[in-house]
Amino acid sequence: MTQFSLPLAPATSVHELDRDDVESYYIPGGKVYERFFECPLDYRQSQSSQRICVFARHIVPLGKENQMHKLPFILYLQGGPGFECRFPGSVKSGWYATAIEENYQILLVDQRGTGLSSPINANTLKHSTVAAQVEYVSHFRADNIVRDCESIRQILCQGRTDPELQKFALLGQSFGGFCITTYLSMFPSSISRALITGGVPPLVDRPDPVYQATYQHMIVRNQQYYAKYPRDVARVRAIIKHLNFVDVALPDGGRLSPRRFQQLGLSFGFTGGFDSVHQHVLRAASDLETAGCLSTHTLAAISADQDFDTNPLYCILHESIYCQNGNASNWAAHRIRKEHFADQFEHRWDHIERRDDPNSPVFFTGETVYPWMLDDYAELRKLKDVAHGLAEYTGWGQLYDTDVLAANTVPVAGVSYYNDMFVDFSLSERTAQSIKGFHQWVTNEFHHNGLAVSARVPKYLFQLLKGDITDL
Questions:
Q1: Chain-centre distance of CA 345, in angstroms?
Q2: What is the pLDDT, as a whole number, of residue 46?
Q3: Coil, strand or helix at 106
Q4: CB 147 within 8 A of CB 43
Q5: CA 450, CA 162: separation in Å to the nearest integer?
Q6: Nearest CA-CA partner of 203 in 431, 44, 423
Q7: What percent of the residues of the chain are helix, what percent strand, and what percent coil, each to the nearest 5?
Q8: Residues of the chain with pLDDT > 70: what percent?
Q9: Is 420 tagged catalytic?
Q10: Is the peptide bond before 10 cis (omega within 30 degrees of 0)?
């Protein structure tokens, strides 16, 4: 894997942690400092004038504000790609409380291109040519996210004499675990320990094997959904029929096509997802029965549950997270669906109507992106050309170094959810076995969002690294 030199911390008489111009305030359990860092767009040209801003919320446990130079850091890497870190509101519960119990101060970084970190959207890209847009966005993958974090580590840990306190502990959810695996490949000596939740990545160089596996999981989750809500079979069929014959505009200017309605199935990957989709189905079916059309309330609720317009990188860079060594994604999920799963995920009413079973269910899709989304989503329409350019892009470099991972010495623990609809268990298990010393916890107790729904998840992983749990 090609290494690039990182810029040194800026020469200044004031340490970043001692600055008095940083905005700060208290939340339950801690004091928040809002920090902004300047990083190169392209680390291969780190002296270039092209810079980006990376934002981090730095949370110090209450009463330990004067220990910032001594407390170790734990860096949280958010899932996605394309999502910023949520503002916690409090650090007295969840994984935040666990981190504080483990004597950490917390860093919540908005990964480049998201939140307050030089966000990418139609407004920030509109002044460039399509070729320039593709080139610019190509720098917003895990490798450069990791380089940003490493640059921030050098700044925040500057002056520490204890080698262990110069390192970051890492916690990564979903795509954040992908980033951790890249971090382990690139800068293992900068990491004290790493914890991965639902994000042990498949070490593939193109997305096709991923979708071959995850479409199978989507089928199972659909079967489970309709087993729980059997009356939704008829309701969803009626909704899909309506959307095939009526052009339905959403309040934000998007279009609710049959395929977009099917995308509500993304929620199937989360605890409580069945119930939230059922509420959409129930409201929509009621609208059609009583008024013959979908209400603004129903349409707004559906639109609010789909993040692709507000977080466009989640669409336009999604498949690139699996691309290495010059392989283009070429809309892999769309191709795999068309070639292997067209009947199971059919959206055209004339095809559904011709099925042998006149009451067969219409299946929802999961965490997949498609070229037609660039017409159905209002904001994605403005990024249509750059999205197609990124799908065809062949300049992707290496994200993982399997030789470095095989010789890993960093304590690493990760949880793989056996029924994870997004991250295939078999592919994750293969990766975990290829990282030396990896402590893998396998469970079917949680879905993909286990970290968000149970404090037991981070506690268990910390126990694994301490050796408190030996019977797996």
A1: 24
A2: 75
A3: strand
A4: yes
A5: 34
A6: 431
A7: 45, 15, 45
A8: 97
A9: yes
A10: no
Assess whether 471 carries a catalytic annotation: no
Beta-bridge partner residues of 27: 30
Residue type at position 223: Q
Per the residue annotation, which of 138, 174, 185, 257 is the catalytic one?
A: 174
- The whole-angstrom separation of Cα 436 and Cα 48 is 37
Query: Residue 169's closest CA among 64, 76, 98?
Result: 76
Estimate the crossing angle of helix 456-466 against helix 94-101, to 10 degrees.
30
The predicted structure's pLDDT at residue 470: 60
Global pTM value:
0.95
Burial class (CB in 10 A: 0-12, 13-18, 19+), 201: buried
What residues have CB less than 8 Å from 467, skipping those under 6 apart?
A: none
Q: Whole-angstrom Cα distance, residue 468 to residue 432?
A: 20
Structure tokens at 340: 């292997």
Catalytic residue, candidates 208, 420, 424, 439: 420
Q: Is 308 helix (H, G, I), strand (E, B) or coil?
A: coil
CA separation for the pair 365, 303 (Å, rounded): 16
Closest to 76 (Cα-Cα) out of 7, 17, 8, 145: 145
CA distance 94 to 77: 16
Which among 276, 206, 249, 241 has a CA at the least distance from the CA of 346? 241
Is 424 one of the catalytic residues? no
Q: Inform me whether the pLDDT recorded for 3 exceeds 70.
A: no
User: Structure tokens of 443?
Assistant: 């469970």
Q: In this model, does residue 272 exceed pLDDT 80?
A: yes
- What CA–CA distance (Å, rounded) separates 52 from 446? 37
* Given 58, 217, 447, 448, the catalytic residue: 448
The answer to whether 190 touches 169, Cβ cutoff 8 Å, is: no
Pair 162, 181: CB distance under 8 Å = no
The identity of residue 15, as a single letter, is H
Q: Are 200 and 220 in contact (CB under 8 A)?
A: no
Amino acid at 273: G
DSSP collapsed to 3 states, 202-265 = CCCCCCHHHHHHHHHHHHHHHHHHHHHCCCHHHHHHHHHHHHHHCCCECCCCCECCHHHHHHHH
HEC readout, 77-101: ECCCCCCCCCCCCCCCCHHHHHHHH
